[in-house]
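Re: export button greyed out
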Amino acid sequence: MTGVEMLIIVIKTVIVVSVFMLHVMYAQYFERKVIAHMQARLGPMRVGWHGILQPIADSLKLFLKEDIIPSSADRPIFYVAPIIGVIAALSSLAVIPLWEGLGVANLNIGILYILALSSVGSYCVILGGWASNSKYSFLGGLRSSAQVISYEIAMGLSLVGVMMMAGSANLSDIVKAQSGHWFIWYQPLACFVFVMSAIAETNRAPFDLTEAETELVAGFATEYSGMRWALFFMAEYAGMFIMTALGTICFLGGWNGPDFWIFAYVPKIVWLVLKIYGCIFIYFWIRATLPRYRYDQLMSIGWKIFIPLSLANIVVTGLVKIIWK
Amino acid sequence: MCIKNSNMSETFVPSDYFPVVIFFIFALLIGFGTLLLGVVLRPKRPYTQKLYPYESGNPPVGEPRYKFSVKFYIIAMLFVVFDVEAVFLYPWAVAYNKLGIFGFAEMMLFVFILLIGYIYVWKKGAFDWE
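Workaround output, generated via the alternate export path:
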C-alpha cells in the first residue's frame, strides 16, 4: 500500500465521518419534527427557520454543560463507557458500501464485522450502568445488556438467509446479488425478524426498556450529563443509522434504484440515502404509534418467537435452494 | 498493495483492514476530542449534594449494587451458546451454493441437535420471567 493510497483512505474517512456526524445530529431534529407532527404539534420552531438550527444550538448547549461525575462512581469506567459506544457505532460505518466500489473498506466479512461491533456496543451500556453506582443505572444497564444480547442472536440468524442467497458476507456482493430482485421478496420472514431485532438492538421504542422513564428514570444514562450523555445519545443514533443501512443493504437492494431511463442519471448513492431515511422514518413512526413492551414480554418474544422463526427461515431457505437447483 | 475488487474479496488481504484501523482511530479522536474540547468551556462547581447518585432528590439509601435476578446469568450463558452456533452457520451460509445436498444434510443435523437443546432449555423454564 503506497502513501497516496493511505492518504486517499484517510481523506475518505474524514469525509464519511463528518457527513455522517451531521446526519446523526439532524436525525434527532428529524425525529422531533416527525413525532411532533404525528401528535399534532409543531416541534422545535424557535432557532432558525422552522427550528432548522436546533441541533446546532443543542450541541453548543451540551458543550457548555457541567460534567457531573457522582462521588460514588467508578471513575475510569465511567469515563470510558460512552467512548466505547461511539467507537463501536462509528467504526461499523467503515464497511457500509455507499456505491459500487465507493465504500471505505471492502471486507469479505462485512456482516460479521458489523455484528461484532454491535456486540461491543452493549459493553458501553453495561459498563456505564455499572460504573454509575446508582440503582437506576444499574438496573437499566443489566436490562439493556440482556436485551441486546438476546436480540443479537435473532439478528445474526436472520442474516444467515441473506448470506445463503448472495453466497457472500461481503456487503457489496450482497447488493450486487440484488440487482434483479430485492431480497425482501425472497426473505420476508428474515426481514421481519431483522427489523424487530434491529429496533431492540438499538434500544428504540417499543423495546426501549432501558430508558423506560416511568420505571428507571433514564436507565443506564441516569448519572450522565453534558457531553458524556451526548456521546451516549450519539452512539444510539449512529447505531440506528448503521442498522438501517445494514437492513437496506441486505433486504432493500442497497444502492439499486428503480430501473427507469430518467433515473439512470441520478447518482446511486441517492437511492441508498433515501432508503435509509425511509427506514429511519419507520423507526420514528413506530415510536409515535406503539406503546412500550413489558420486560418479560420482550425477553420471551426474543427467545421464544424470533429465534425459532429465524432458524426455520434458514431451514426453509436451504430446502428451497436445494429443490430449485 | 491495495485490492478493492470484489472478485478478490474471498481472499484475506491484511491491507483491506487498514481503513478499519483508520476509522477506529477517528472514532477514538471524536470520542475523546468532544470531551476534551469542552473542558475549558464548561463550568465545574461540584458540591456534596450535587454529586449524590440520583434517587429522587433524597440521600441514597443502601447499596446500589444489590442482588439481582439469576435470570440475567442464564441469559448470558445461553447467549454464548447460541451466538457461537450462529457464527458457526456463517461460513456454511457463504459456501452454501458450493456444498450441495451434503452440506444441507450436515447442517440440518446440526440444527436438529441444537433444537433438542433449545427445547430442553425452554422446558426447564429458562425463558420465563416470572
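Chain A has a mean pLDDT of 85. The button fix ships in the next patch.
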